[in-house]
Amino acid sequence: MRPFELTVPATVDEAVASGHTFLAGGTTLVDLMKLDVVTPPRVADITALPLRGISTEDGLRIGALERMSDVAAHPGVPPAITRALTLSASQQLRNMATIGGNLMQRTRCGYFRDTTMPCNKRSPGSGCGAIGGTNRMHAVLGASRHCAATHASDLAVALVALDAELRITGPDGTRALPLTDFYRTPGDTPDIENDLRSGELITDVLVPHPEHAANSTYVKIRDRRSYEFALCSVAATLEVTGGVVAEARIAAGGVGTIPWRLPGVEAALRGEPATESSFAAAAEIAAHGAEPLAHNGFKVPLLKRTLVRALLELTGGGER
Fold first, then answer.
1. pLDDT-derived band of residue 6, with 50, 70 and 90 as boundaries?
2. 60-119: per-residue pLDDT in tens?
3. What does pLDDT average to over the chain?
4. Are 204 and 154 part of one and the same domain?
5. Which listed site, 137, 155, 156, 209, has its alpha carbon 20 to 30 Å from 255?
6. H helices within 19-121, ranges in order?
7. 5 falls within a domain
8. What angle do CA 37, 178, 16 make, to 5 degrees?
């Protein structure tokens, strides 16, 4: 780890004016600093800022510095969020990691984390080692010729499915931004991962209509049952009236360069019987536009099967 200057701002305004790299739980940033993947000269410890609290008075509001384990244990948090959090990392990391930090975490792509390898996300213009290399864990949706790294957050997938918004404060004031507009696909600039501007800080996460998420779930498929990132995951909410799907909200993880919302599948489900055959028919379009690499083509059928499994859970046809 290279030397850096550490400051401890007393207020949000002081933090955003500093221009420093923000440190909260440190479960991602410190790892990357140790690997010399990121080398910020100045770091601001924001853990003392008043960015905590969980409120259900007007929608669900979660302070960005709330710990993952505390949010997962809160009775007002929808099942999809709870499951996404409890299936993330280890209990020790969940006790440290913050909600804002989880949404800002960097990819776990091995080429990104190895400074001896080419990576356009870490070093623009150096190339993408994954495109012609080992790419079993990489994205089949949203990739470009410059980058195919998957987004790592389980929580972000659940929040995208629930139409969550971020409240962001920066030098120019405070703004709200839908999470679906926050993350960027790599295109020609994979080093630009999100819409956070210079000096800005996530202060809150808002789920505007948590009642829609009462019947929700998060299904995560991985190589082992614990402390492993998703090969494929699906967050889903389902509203069924008289045996017919009235509304669906679905997002996928582990298969895209960003948390991947599936509006086509949602539209295909509306007005259809809540049956396994209808779910399977809608799932056929889940991977529309997928471009598998040499080693990750299995993610296309896996996404379809994971989606059906999630929907069956929500209708009593599968185990939770």
1. very high
2. 999 999 999 999 999 999 999 999 999 998 889 999 999 999 999 999 999 999 999 999
3. 95
4. yes
5. 209
6. 29-34, 68-73, 79-86, 91-96, 99-104, 110-113
7. no
8. 55
Exposure pattern of 74-101 as b/e (b: 16+ CB <10 Å)?
eeebbbbbbbbbbbbbeeebbebbbbbb
| Per-residue pLDDT at 320 | 44
Put residue 92 in one of left, alpha, beta given phi > 0 → left and psi -120 to 50 → alpha.
Answer: alpha
For 166, the enclosing helix (H) or strand (E) is: strand 165-170
Confidence at 318, pLDDT banded by 50, 70, 90 = low
Q: Identify whether the C-beta of residue 145 lies closer than 8 Å to the C-beta of residue 257.
A: no
How does residue 58 score in pLDDT terms, banded at 50, 70 and 90?
Answer: confident
> How many residues are given for the chain?
320
Overall domain count for the chain: 2
How many CB atoms sit inside 10 A of residue 296's CB? 25
- Tell me how far apart the alpha carbons of residues 121 and 311 are, in angstroms, rounded to a whole number: 35
For range 109-132, the mean pLDDT:
97
Domain that holds residue 107: 48-139+146-210
Q: Measured between alpha carbons, how far is 2 from 213 in angstroms, rounded to an integer?
A: 44
Last residue of a domain, one of 166, 187, 210: 210
Strand-pairing partners, residue 62, are 54, 205
Count the alpha carbons within 13 Å of 184 in the hemisphere toward its beta carbon. Answer: 14
Domain stop point among 163, 185, 210: 210
Q: 300: part of which helix (H) or strand (E)?
A: helix 299-314
Choose among 35, 40, 32, 73: nearest CA to 54.
73
Dist. CA 238–CA 4, nearest whole Å: 48
Asked if 156 and 195 count as a contact pair (C-beta separation under 8 A), the reply is no
What percentage of residues in the chain have a pLDDT greater than 90? 92
